[in-house]
Structure formats: structure tokens, C-alpha cells
Amino acid sequence: MDSLFSLQGRVALVTGGSRGIGRMIAAGFLRQGAKVYISARKAEACDATAAELSALGTCVSLPADVSSMEGVRALAGAIAQREGALDILVNNAGAAWGEEFDTFPEKGWDKVVDLNMKSPFFLTQALHGLLKNGAKAHAAKVINIASIDGISVNPWETYSYAASKAGLIHLTKRMALRLAQDNIVVSGIAPGPFASEMNKQARDHADEVAERVPVGRIGTEDDMAGAAIFLASRAGDYVVGDTIVVDGGVSMARG
Fold this sequence. Notes:
By secondary structure, this protein is an alpha/beta fold. It has helices spanning 20-31, 43-53, 69-82, 106-126, 128-134, 159-179, 200-204, 206-210, 221-232, 250-254, and strands at 11-15, 35-39, 59-61, 88-91, 140-145, 184-191, 243-246. The protein has one domain (11-249): Rossmann fold (3-Layer(aba) Sandwich), CATH 3.40.50.720.
């Protein structure tokens, strides 16, 4: 059972890994024996997180802005300079925008959709060769981080965010069908309320948010790490194209 969930000797890249859900996943991978590269737009924050997480294992900072194709190519090139194979890619970097329907701007659409849906596709495409190399020894993994807002509707006017996450869930299925032939398993996670910069409500008002969660609490680091480790390890090899909901029952309660 220990080997079933082990990531010993595997190389992972987690985008948006300097904080929040990305950091939770990176820490979980390190504890299971993986070598982890984390990427984030802000170099100082990325470097600081990598230094802290290095207490758990080998964690390397690769700052990059994957919201642009130039940034995607730069990050893929930086990994290729350091590794001949990649075992796990977690597409976690994301953005949100909330504004009323009548004033919702184009920039609030393009910024969010480009980072949340376009970048996971093109970063996976850019790293396809390294992932295929990783897949020679065992199934390589791509894990797309979606959201329950792509499954059920929340009360807030976050049009581009909801649409991009719903699109990512469907994109995960389409990518999974193609990449399965290369022994690359694509799956996803749809988080609910976890304390993060993007979910400041859960971070700053955990008790209040917990009242709306069927299990009575917000998600913890172990909740997120556990789901990601399952999908990244041998245990998740047969989960293809599906997006696991990790939300304490929130999306069901919404109806």
C-alpha cells in the first residue's frame, strides 16, 4: 500500500505553486518523495516558498508567467534544461474576476480564460515530449485544477471564471482521450472552499464559510494533498479524464 501511493523518484511541476492550493499540492508531493518544481509569476514569492518547502525534499523555484505563450515556452524550456523527463504536471495557476453583468469588461474575460483554460492546454503541449519520456517507466500524469464553480453556480458574478473552469473540466476529458495513447493520464480536481489568496472568504472567514459546508469545515492542506497524491501516484492510474470534486459536499448542497 505504501508503494501504491508513493511518488519516490518522480519529478513534478506545479504551476501557481507558491501559495494556496498549489503549495498544498507541492508539499504533499514532497512528503511522498517527489522532486518538485514550483512556478509562479512573482519570483520573490516563488523563491521563498521553494526555500521553505525544501525542508520536506528537493523543491526548485522556476518563476514564470504562464498567462502568455512566451511564458509557457520559457517555463517548458527551463524544465527541459534541468530534466530529461517529467512525471507529473499540475496545471494550477489561475485567476478570477468578479463584476456585474452590465459592466463586465473584455479584459476580465481574456485574462481569466487565457490563464485558466488556454495555458493548461499549451503548457501540456509544450511539455509533451518530457511527459512521454516520463511515461516510459510508468504512467505520466497531468492534473488540471478546476473548481466547483465549473460544476455548479455560485451567487457571485464571476462569469469568465465559471466558464473557464467548466471549459477546463471538459478540456480535461478531451486531452485525456488523446494523451492516453502516450501513457499520459490526464485528470482533474475541482476544489471547494480552501483558504487561499483566490478564496479570501474561506481564508479570512473560515467559520462563516464552514456553516455552508455539509461537513462543517473548510478544506485543509491534507484534504487537497491527499486527492492530488492519489491522482499522481500509481493509485490513480485508472482515473482517466475525470475531475474529482474535493469540496466537503458544497456543490451538492448548491443543487
